[in-house]
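Re: the request from the purification team.
They wanted to know what the chain is likely to look like in 3D before they choose a buffer screen. I agreed to run a prediction and write the result into the notebook, where they can find it.
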Amino acid sequence: MNNLFDIRGKVALVTGGSRGIGEMIAAGFLANGVKVYISSRKAEVCNATAARLMEQFGGECISLPANLAEVTGCQQLADELAARESQLDILINNAGVSWGAPIDDFPESGWDKVMDTNVKGVFFLTQKLLPLLRQSGSAEDPARVVNVGSIDGLKNPVFETFSYGPSKAALHHLTRGLALHLTRQHIIVNAIAPGPFPTWMLSTGVGGGGDTDIDWSVVGNNNPRGRVGTAEDISGLAIFLCSRAGAYTVGEVITCDGGSAYAT
């Protein structure tokens, strides 16, 4: 009972870990004794974030850039990780993109890019990493996969991002399917559905142009909690799911949104 949330000594991979929610989860893991690999498409950004996180939180944070919208990129990342580690305890599938355009002008490329990254990439990266996850998982301490969905997969998005919500709804359902097939192999799969957090992606939607150093109070005031989310909020939930405390939680989609999904 004294170490329910202890994740020290585990090895984690956080995709989309160079900024936003992925960076927040990576920071929480580092602060709690996890060896963290982060991945994102842009190598220079990924490398810089890994260095900054180590300087701020200590521990080991290693950058492994990859394009996870392509199966070849998923295989490349899995191979690079397998060359460094004999097992993987935690996989955070956070890499994701969005696309905004009026419905009459919404392009096929905006549909395919979102679906390829947010759904296909999650499935195939998880598939390629199954040997390392199986090596880690046991009946007493299963390996963990946490897919980062969105409350936009639970309700209609307010923005004209017509492929984003469906991609996240698909990811939520994929989570349940993966859980069904992998739980008896000692790999637990769950999903988090974040609401408003001070991220680059949300900033582009609320007029911040991608700048996260803006006044978020307008967004926060519309939330039942009266604020946007923090790194502690999202990393705390991830730590719960990846620790002994979450070992009997399987196939769930847990909102982390201050109540906004059901306040409308």
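For the purification team: The helical segments are 20-31, 43-57, 71-82, 108-136, 164-182, 200-205, 217-221, 231-242.
Please add any questions underneath this entry.
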